[in-house]
Amino acid sequence: MHKYSTDELVAQKPTEADFRKLKRNPLVFILHNIRSLENVGLFFRLADALLVKKIYLTGYTGYPKLENDARDPRISTHAEKEINKTAIKLVPLVPWKKSEDITAVFSELRTTNYQLIGVEQTDQSIDYRKAGYEFPVALVFGHERTGVEEELLEKCDFVVHLPMLGMGNSHNVAMSGSIIGSYLINTLST
Hints:
The protein is 37% helix and 18% strand. By secondary structure, the chain is of the alpha/beta class.
C-alpha cells in the first residue's frame, strides 16, 4: 500500500479549466443564519468534494467577498479569511449566491423543480436514510444552536434528521451536511 502525498493527489486532479466543465450534481445547500464562518468554509469544501450545484447563503450567514462589496472592508476581509481557512481556497471553484431573502431562494428553486428538504430534529422528521428523495434536491440547514426556523420547515417538502445513538443531541451543522450530502450523492450514483 502506498499513501499518496499531497503532490501526488494534486497531480491526479484535472486542470481548473477542465474542472469547471464537469457536470455538477443536482444538489444544493441552503445555509440560513449560520453564524460560524468556519462552518460556511466547511460547506464550501464539502460542495467541492461532492460537486454540488450551488450553495445559497441566506439571512445573516457570513459570505466571502463580493465584487463591489458593501460591507466594511474589515468585515469582508475577516469573512474571506475565516471562510478560506476551512474551505482551503476552494471558494472560487464552487458556485454560490448570497441572498438575504430565503423565501426568494425557495421560490427560485421551486420553479426549477427542486425538492426542498429541511435538516432538523422534529416530532415529524424522517431518518435521512428512509426519506423519499427526488432529484434535484435542496438541503436547508439552519443556525447551529436554534436550527431551521419553524416557518421555513413548514415550507419544505419534508424534514430529515440524523439519528443520534450517543448522549449528544446533534451533529455539527457541517458534519450533518457531509453525512446527508454524501449519502445523497452515493444514492444518485447507484
